[in-house]
Every structure is written in structure tokens, then in C-alpha cells.
Specification:
Layout: H1 2-13, H2 25-32, H3 42-64, H4 73-83, H5 89-98, H6 127-138, H7 154-161, H8 170-181
Length: about 190
């Protein structure tokens, strides 16, 4: 019994013969690695700077009104850019519809709905998912929502979202809120 135990221990203790030692790869790797200053282009840096500033403006706007959507500024800005819509549009709709989430849809079938989306009859897995879905839809990038088309002006999007026949002056109300978030950029 002792010899059976000793054999595996000897195999581990004895060096392997016939195998050359493995060279120190750290020096080889260090000689091959080239370090660049940055993989981010000047344009990407500028885009990030603009996105960050816009996100701060959205968050500051919601904070001013003690709105629950404060903190989602970057998500709003990112999804707006991704879907080519004005970055102030969804925050303004959320403020108009639910006071920035203070009066979010109460229907249990409509969780995370801070936009009055589908008349509060449907909800979302998370606030992030609601921002993603609504941005995609309003931009015309959702194949299931054919009444929104790519290239619509903000005013036309808003008139589809809530026509004047349902809420007179709705688009003007939302555009006014957009200007409250930032009045330095034109609304297209």
C-alpha cells in the first residue's frame, strides 16, 4: 500500500526529462506590445463631450423638479443619437405626460411607463427598455410602428404621438418643455 502512494509522489517530485524549459515570455511579450496614446478619435472625444453635457442638462432639468427620471440623462441622449431624434424629445414627453415619472402609469400592466405610452395599457421591463423602445419607435426604426417614419420632424412625431384632435396644442407644449431643457439648439 505504501508503494502505491509513493509512486505518484515520486512522479510529481522528479523533474520531467527531455522537455526543454519554457522561456520567459514576459520579455518577449513586452517587446511586441506597442502602446498608443488613445484609441479614441478626436471626433469621438467631441461626441462624448457633447453627450455628457446634454446628459447633465437632462438630469439637471429633472432634478430641478425632483423627478424620478433624474439620472437617466445619458440613456436619453444615447438612444436619441442612436435613433436620430432630438435628445430633448423623450425627456420633454416624460415631463409633459408624467411630470418626469412622478405620476407614472399606475396600471399594473404598464410598469416603467413614464411616457403615457399606449395610454398606459402597456409597460416595460425597465426604464432603460422604455427609453430604448420609444426612441426606436418615434424615430421610425421600429418595423412594427408604421405610422412613424424615418426623417419626420419633431413636430410631426409629436402630432402622431398625441394628435391635436385628442390634445389640442400638445406638440407646442412638448416643444416648450424641450426649450426649457436647452434653448440653444434648434428643434428640427
Amino acid at each position: 500500500m505504501q508503494s502505491i502512494v509513493a509512486i505518484p509522489m515520486l512522479a510529481v517530485a522528479l523533474p520531467l526529462t527531455g522537455i526543454q524549459s519554457i522561456p520567459d515570455m514576459a520579455s518577449v511579450i513586452n517587446n511586441k506590445v506597442e502602446v498608443s496614446d488613445s484609441a479614441i478619435t478626436t471626433q469621438e472625444k467631441e461626441d462624448l463631450k457633447i453627450a455628457t453635457e446634454r446628459a447633465k442638462q437632462v438630469d439637471a432639468f429633472f432634478k430641478k423638479y425632483d423627478a424620478p427620471l433624474a439620472g437617466y440623462g445619458m440613456k436619453f441622449v444615447t438612444e436619441a443619437k442612436k435613433n436620430d431624434i432630438d435628445w430633448r424629445l423623450l425627456p420633454a414627453i416624460a415631463m409633459r405626460e408624467t411630470t418626469g415619472g412622478k405620476q407614472a402609469c399606475k396600471n399594473p400592466k404598464a410598469p416603467n411607463n413614464n411616457f403615457g405610452w399606449a395610454s398606459c395599457k402597456s409597460g416595460f421591463e425597465s426604464v432603460d427598455k422604455s427609453i430604448e423602445h420609444i426612441s426606436k419607435t418615434l424615430s421610425g426604426n421600429n418595423a412594427n410602428a408604421i405610422h412613424y417614419t424615418d426623417g419626420m420632424t419633431t413636430d410631426k412625431i409629436l402630432k402622431k404621438y398625441n394628435p391635436d384632435s385628442i390634445i389640442p396644442g400638445y406638440s407646442k407644449q412638448v416643444i416648450k418643455i424641450m426649450k426649457m431643457i436647452n434653448d440653444n439648439e434648434e428643434i428640427v
